[in-house]
Amino acid sequence: MERLFLLCSGLLVTTVTSQHNVCSRPELHNNIETAGFQRFFSPGVELALSCKQGYTPVLGPRKIVCTINGQWTSTKLKCIPKQCPYPDLITNGELSYEETHYQSLINYTCHEGYIMTGSSSAVCQANGTWSSPAPECIPVSCGLAPVPLYGMVIYNKVVRGSTTDYGLTAQYICNPPYALFGNPVAECTAAGTWTEAPECQVVTCPPPENIERGYMSNNENREFFFKETVKYDCESPYVLEGSLEAVCLETGKWSEKPSCKAPCSVNIQKGRILYKGKKVWIEDFQPNRVYHQEVVSVYCMNKAMNCGYAVSTQCIDGILKIPACFEEPGGVEYTLKPNSLPSEIDQC
Predict the structure, then answer these.
(1) CATH fold of 19-81, please?
(2) What is the DSSP letter of 316?
(3) pLDDT tens-place string over residues 259-307
(4) CATH 2.10.70.10 in the chain, residues?
(5) What proportion of the chain, given as a percentage, has pLDDT over 90?
(6) The whole model's pTM is what?
(7) Residue 340 DSSP symbol
(8) Distance of CA 52 to CAs 130, 176, 264, Å?
(9) For 30, 264, 291, 334, which has the most beta carbons within 10 A of its beta carbon?
């Protein structure tokens, strides 16, 4: 009866549990888990351990046992996050991230002038892959650049179809007699529009003026259109300095005209000069003329070394300065002793 009473009343369980401690459901950390919902376990029960989704097991063992004193055996099992592959760089854009393991985040941005196609972010998933592929950054598109009346457009790259990409530039040219007013270069902007196009307007210059001691190729008394030209030349023996022609500019004014420069005379009475590589007595130098920017040399004496040397001087618009070292010889010396002159003795 006593045994039956104990069985019916459940005191037998109390007697048994007083002899053996049970283990409570283990508290698992570091992303470790176990199956089922059982709360208490008898000594000797083994419990399999696993890692939560997105984590990989390392070390071990991967099970624990309920001991007779109601404690679970220890384990060195660790669950580390799964790794996703390192993301590739994107063209015309940037990406930012700190880690590449489970639940890490990548953010994508495109450079100015580019539009993103695809997701702007991705998350490392439990299976070790990113939630979405890397996006593309495609250029913003503009239409064709506006063409001004009486003008044309030249692109810096080949354009096919009716669209142009961000950053493309267009050079504007006006057909004469029209001149360009405004920025000669337009650009396809990040907003998908072109910067302001210039205008082509008629430009004229007043009748050109002649130059002193010269003449023009065109004496018409009329207005000249943009980019029309007039050529100039000089009367002999003057030399033209500057451009041979003047151009009607977009400002309505002529470009700088040339000028006619005068020749020079070698102002010595006695002596020998060096001109175009030849030594010439001054009385034989006929005509006594050195053209603008030409060079002639006179001879000076180095008295200490008793030798002669040539000193150059240049004709500048009718002025030719004789070097200060030149000493014109006396009449007797020049006539009777020409071999003693600086030009004739040994040269320094």
Answers:
(1) Complement Module; domain 1 (2.10.70)
(2) B
(3) 999 999 999 999 999 999 999 999 999 999 999 999 999 999 999 999 9
(4) 19-81, 93-139, 141-202, 204-261, 272-340
(5) 87
(6) 0.54
(7) G
(8) 18, 79, 104
(9) 264
CATH-assigned architecture of domain 204-261: Ribbon (2.10)
DSSP 19: H
- In sequence order, which residues have a C-beta less than 8 Å from that of residue 122 and are 6 or more positions away? 87, 105, 106, 108, 130, 131, 132, 133, 134
Q: Are 187 and 194 in contact (CB under 8 A)?
A: yes
CA–CA distance, 233 with 304 (Å, rounded to integer):
49
Taking the C-alpha atoms of residue 134 and residue 126, their distance in angstroms, rounded to an integer, is 18
Query: What's the whole-number average pLDDT of the chain?
Result: 91
Q: What is the CATH number of domain 272-340?
A: 2.10.70.10
For 22, other C-beta atoms within 10 Å of its C-beta total: 13
Do residues 126 and 102 make contact, with C-beta atoms less than 8 angstroms apart?
yes
Three-state DSSP state, 47? strand
Name the packing angle between helices 11-19 and 2-9 (round to 10°). 80
Is residue 199 within 8 Å of residue 179, measured between CB atoms?
A: no
